[in-house]
# Entry
Amino acid sequence: MKLDLRRQQMLLAGEWVDRTETMEVRNPENDQLVAIVPKASKTDMEQAIARAKEGAKASASLPVYKRMTILNRAADFVDAHKERFARTIATEGSKTIREARKETGRCVETLRLCAEEARRITGETIPFDQSPGGTGRFGYYERHPLGIIGAITPFNDPLNLVAHKIGPAIAAGNAIVLKPATATPLSALLLAEAFMEAGLPKGILSVMTGLGSEVGDVLITHPDVRMVSFTGGMEAGLEIAKKAGLKKKSMELGSNSPVIVLEDAQIEDAVKANVSGAFWAAGQNCIGVQRLYVHEEVYDRFKELFVKQSCAYLMGEKLSEKTDMGPLISEKEAKRVAFMVDDALRMGAALLCGGKRRGAFYEPTVLENVPDECMLAKEEIFGPVVLLYKIKSLAEGIERANQSDYGLHAGLFTESMNAVFQAIQELEAGGVMVNDSSDFRIDAMPFGGTKQSGLGREGVKFSILEMTEQKVVCFKLRDNG
# Structure
């Protein structure tokens, strides 16, 4: 079954529009044409931002119960059409149909969480008389929407990461202009359809399909855009941060996630979790397992089981129910991964599994003895490749895990609570997953990293906090004495 080859429209301030210039959306599995979408111009983006100014006023004036109703209706729409959403994700992107169904389910949950958190945007009273000059005063702070949010999303989670931008923005009373990944715009357009069906007033939401090089700078530099929310690569994030200037920024960037497996770990559980964590979505996952530090006492056993399960991971057609892993997002990306692996092999690494490319497909690959100075060890792979290292102690594992310039998620497998709390204290990461791979995440938790892995935190409640600002109110009370 194929998606209809039809000319899509983009959403400009709540209205569906077409353009003469277009872009093709192709299936990375076979390069077949999936759909054609408008190629937005700089003028289109400027128009979307201009109309979002009125949309921001409309959004801020929406009563909380109406925001909640709209978000829940949008979630209902996604849930009612979940197979359509899942097949769109699997056709335009890298995920298998089983992975796509899970992402669709998470999108529904994300939107419902946004509806719930909308009722919890609150402030606090402030005891002004804690200072001598504050006697006779009463006040509080409250949270207000920022105005216009500019959002840029990646290809690897083309629906749920879009929901993590749009949902909190609407819950907080903002307008949002979103540019989805060029390779995977269809899922974002489907979510925009859900919000239009849910009754979102015009002007609040725009989903602009176009090239980042042409419309991205307009979005991030425009003075009326009060915040830029970006999920993507570290280099692009640095450029955006430089260009955006004095406005709020939320940046979820790259990673090189480490997992430590100690001698007392449940080895079978650790193997199963880390195979999935390494190869989910063909390894195109910012918190996917990249470096595995395994204690020398259990290294050989872990390696044997891990390689066996990795080699059994079924690569093939995305829409097949049997397939475990599909292609990378493009042949260019597969060639990049192949180059990094070949570079490591030239420098002395040992290939335990995989290592072959076919078009945009790259086999699940396991390496050991990878030199610290090669690209695979230092950079984010963003592909189905995992590195095994032997360690003598937890202290060595933590030290080596922290050598990366990234710090998004880390994992630890052990039965020792002392080891757990030492790792929590010393690992330089935004999240530490105990007896789980670095790949674990739920949509309600704060999500973000340290060092070059980003700025701020996502996760519904925490995105809403980022997308609002505090306003202090103070009353000087009249002295009736």
Summary: The two ends are 81 Å apart (CA to CA). The chain has a mean pLDDT of 96. The first strand starts at residue 10 and ends at 12. The chain has 15 helices and 24 strands.
